[in-house]
Amino acid sequence: MKNTILTFKKAKEDGKKLSMLTAYDYSMAKIIDESGINGILIGDSLGMVVKGDEDTLSVTLEEIIYHTKAVKKGAKNALIVSDMPFLSYHVSKEQAVLNAGRLIKEGGANAVKLEGGANVIGQIRAIVNAQIPVMGHLGLTPQSVNAFGGFRVQGKSEETAKKLIEDAKLIEDAGAFSIVLEGIPAKVAQLITDSVSIPTIGIGAGANCDGQILVYQDMLGMFNDFVPKFVKQYANIGSVMTEAICSYISEVENGSFPEEKHTYKIDESELNKLY
Ligand code: KIV
């Protein structure tokens, strides 16, 4: 069954946890979708895990559209949420609506996600008014890495925690259907989750959010440049891949690959004409 924003709403009402993962291509989206995930995010984390950058800031709208198109073809049931990259919504409400619209029209997303609180409420309201579902994103919002002075856990003081709670309420009031809470203390995430009627999706925000999201390369053990504290590696696919690739290399080198069963045939009569 196709997950929609109504699935997200009902899950919060029923106290059922929501699961989300990122994906950036067709094959991976298909595997994740067929596993029964609620939502797939084409995250601007692709700047780091696909492009190899140090942060997410260089990601463009065109790149998110390109990857959304691929994910869309592989994911039949998950709600598809596309990230709005840095500076694709900060300039004006008009810019935000037009760019969110491109993610829907050209990429095929079902919803968009953008980072920020009070500073982007006008944009959230304008996008929602254009009939595009919005997922908010608060806490350690990676597009603010320079403003934060690094990737730092947010909401650790009374003042900053209160601001996160206020921002979450503003985001709900502006019409968002859900909010990602990233890199904040679990107790603060719980307070936010209890303060809003839309589902919170946590990453590094403890177990009391309404759902969880992880970057798939992190949870499958495929990205080891750094492994944040909040990541659980459910498998070590990176080493399985290395092992398989090493076997391939040695079989190519010793001539045991390809075998007869991997090769195409030509009729003897046709072959003889070539000599
Ligand atoms: O870009 C991304 O993948 C994200 C998630 C980590 C929430 O924003």
TrEMBL record:
GO cellular component, as recorded: cytoplasm
Gene responsible for this protein: panB
One example of a Gene Ontology biological process annotation: methylation
UniProt-listed NCBIfam families: panB, PRK00311.1
Purpose: Catalyzes the reversible reaction in which hydroxymethyl group from 5,10-methylenetetrahydrofolate is transferred onto alpha-ketoisovalerate to form ketopantoate.
Residues engaged in binding Mg(2+): 44, 83, 115
EC number: 2.1.2.11
Entry protein name: 3-methyl-2-oxobutanoate hydroxymethyltransferase
CDD domains attached to this UniProt entry: KPHMT-like (cd06557)
Reactions catalysed: (6R)-5,10-methylene-5,6,7,8-tetrahydrofolate + 3-methyl-2-oxobutanoate + H2O = 2-dehydropantoate + (6S)-5,6,7,8-tetrahydrofolate
Domain of life: Bacteria
Pathway: Cofactor biosynthesis; (R)-pantothenate biosynthesis; (R)-pantoate from 3-methyl-2-oxobutanoate: step 1/2
SUPFAM superfamilies cross-referenced by the UniProt entry: Phosphoenolpyruvate/pyruvate domain
InterPro entries to which the protein is assigned, alphabetical: Pantoate_hydroxy_MeTrfase, Pyrv/PenolPyrv_kinase-like_dom, Pyrv_kinase-like_dom_sf
Active site location: 182
Subunit structure: Homodecamer; pentamer of dimers.
Keywords (A to Z) from UniProt: Cytoplasm, Magnesium, Metal-binding, Methyltransferase, Pantothenate biosynthesis, Transferase
Binding positions for 3-methyl-2-oxobutanoate per the UniProt entry: 44-45, 83, 113
GO molecular function: 3-methyl-2-oxobutanoate hydroxymethyltransferase activity; magnesium ion binding; methyltransferase activity
Cofactor descriptive note: Binds 1 Mg(2+) ion per subunit.
UniProt record similarity statement: Belongs to the PanB family.
Cofactor dependency: Mg(2+)
Subcellular location(s) of the protein: Cytoplasm
